[in-house]
């Protein structure tokens, strides 16, 4: 077993250390081409005015939920780390565009852990360009403890990056682009979702960076991140969104495994004019181990389904996944899991 400060190669080995994001400093970003590309927002999104009292309440309640989540994780022996708290409304620009930093809420999107390697990924949304910076003190600490730390090439993100076709959006292949939540990690096999948040050049960059021992499998199973569509609960057992997927869409190496099909999910609602995530953010789970997962406490039918498959659900309060755009899996990054880097096929 590994004793590295950073070690994780899948989403199910026993969890020992995790980074949780923060809702503090959450700032609705400008409606530029990259935002229009990523969110299924209404035409009147530009006119949204969120009252400061409402925004403060959502942020405060989200932080309350993180506080409770920390207590639950620590009760299961998991060390919890948090980033620096960003200042709301931080502005920045490149030679070709300007934006406002949105948050430091979702380390799962801006960072990936593969073995003992921490990877800063090339995110395609402009308001998330420097999202990794509040996590940098932690990255430096992990690096000093022996982890490998690297960053993908910083993208230029011109308007031509964002392509709309047949009511769907993709990102151009001019430079490597992907969010870390496009990845489904399974030991030496990485499943990479080519979508509005990841392109084939990004998959190629990741394959060459990881080297020939790894295999990066391209797939296109949903519009953006995979963690509201497909989870590997443990080897041999999948959790899949029946509204998004069919059996034929499951990547071929995984098709022989048993699949729990989620046919419905509770809608937790949203606080602002329009949601930043679909109701399927309710199946955004964080595994404590191969037989135990954290689940939003409102998802009663999902918890019963997991129990019937021999997976113990641990309910936790998580009120604002749709308002802020991320669930339990999005807002966490497993730094260390107790297990081996293995092959499962």
Fold topology:
Elements: E1 15-20, H1 33-38, H2 52-75, E2 79-81, E3 91-93, E4 98-100, H3 107-110, E5 111-114, E6 117-120, H4 136-144, E7 148-151, E8 162-165, E9 168-171, E10 183-186, E11 189-193, H5 200-210, E12 215-219, E13 230-234, E14 237-241, E15 258-262, E16 286-289, E17 292-296, H6 300-308, E18 312-316, H7 321-324, E19 332-337
Parallel strand pairs: 1-2, 6-7, 11-12, 14-15, 17-18
Antiparallel strand pairs: 1-19, 3-4, 5-6, 8-9, 10-11, 13-14, 16-17
Describe the protein:
The chain is an alpha/beta fold and 345 residues long. It has a single domain, classed as L-arginine/glycine Amidinotransferase, Chain A (5-stranded Propeller). Helices cover 19% and strands 24% of the residues. The protein contains seven helices and 19 strands. The chain has a three-stranded mixed beta sheet, with helices on one face. The longest helix is centred in the N-terminal third of the chain and has 24 residues, at 52-75. The two termini are 21 Å apart.
**Level-1 CATH class name:** Alpha Beta
Strand neighbour order, sheet with most strands: 2-1-19
**What is the tally of helical segments?**
7
Strand content: 15-25%
What fold name goes in the CATH topology slot? L-arginine/glycine Amidinotransferase, Chain A
Mean pLDDT: 94
Shape summary: globular
Number of strands: 19
- Head-to-tail CA distance between termini: 21 Å
Radius of gyration, in angstroms, nearest whole number = 19 Å
Q: What's the story with the biggest beta sheet?
A: 3 strands, mixed
What structural category arises from helix and sheet content? alpha/beta
Order of helices and strands: EHHEEEHEEHEEEEEHEEEEEEHEHE
Number of domains: 1
Q: What is the architecture at the second tier of CATH?
A: 5-stranded Propeller
What is the helix content?
A: 10-25%
Low-confidence stretches: none
Keywords: Transferase
Organism: Micromonospora inaquosa
Active site: 179, 225, 330 (amidino-cysteine intermediate)
Protein name: Inosamine-phosphate amidinotransferase 1
């Amino acid at each position: 077993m590994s004793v590295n400060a950073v070690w994780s190669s899948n989403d199910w080995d026993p969890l020992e250390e995790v980074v949780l994001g923060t809702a503090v400093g959450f700032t609705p970003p400008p409606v530029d081409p990259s935002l229009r590309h990523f969110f299924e927002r209404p035409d009147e999104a530009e006119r949204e005015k969120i009252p400061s009292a409402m925004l403060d309440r959502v942020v405060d309640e989200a932080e309350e939920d993180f506080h409770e989540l920390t207590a639950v994780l620590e009760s299961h022996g998991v060390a919890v780390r948090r980033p620096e708290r960003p200042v709301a409304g931080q502005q920045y620009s490149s030679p070709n565009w300007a934006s406002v930093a949105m948050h430091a809420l979702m380390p799962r999107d801006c960072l990936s852990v593969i073995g003992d390697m921490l990877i800063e990924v090339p995110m395609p949304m402009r308001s998330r360009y420097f999202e990794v910076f509040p996590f940098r003190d932690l990255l430096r600490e992990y690096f000093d403890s022996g982890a490998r730390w690297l960053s993908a090439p910083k993208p230029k993100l011109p308007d031509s990056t964002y392509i709309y076709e047949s009511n769907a959006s993709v990102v151009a292949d001019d430079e490597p682009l992907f969010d870390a939540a496009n990845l489904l990690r399974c030991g030496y096999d990485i499943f990479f979702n080519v979508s509005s948040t990841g392109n084939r050049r990004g998959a190629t960059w990741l394959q060459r960076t990881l080297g020939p021992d790894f295999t990066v499998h391209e797939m296109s199973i949903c519009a953006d991140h995979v963690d509201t569509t497909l989870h590997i609960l443990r080897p041999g057992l999948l959790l899949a969104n029946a509204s998004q997927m069919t059996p034929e869409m499951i990547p071929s190496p995984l098709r022989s495994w048993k699949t729990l099909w989620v046919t419905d999910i509770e809608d937790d609602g949203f606080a602002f004019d329009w949601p930043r995530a679909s109701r399927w953010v309710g199946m955004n789970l964080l595994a404590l181990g191969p037989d135990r997962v954290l689940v939003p406490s409102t998802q009663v039918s999902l918890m019963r389904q997991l129990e019937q498959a021999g997976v113990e659900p641990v309910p936790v309060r998580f009120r604002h996944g749709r308002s802020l755009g991320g669930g339990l899996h999005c807002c966490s990054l497993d730094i260390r899991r107790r297990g081996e880097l293995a092959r499962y096929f």
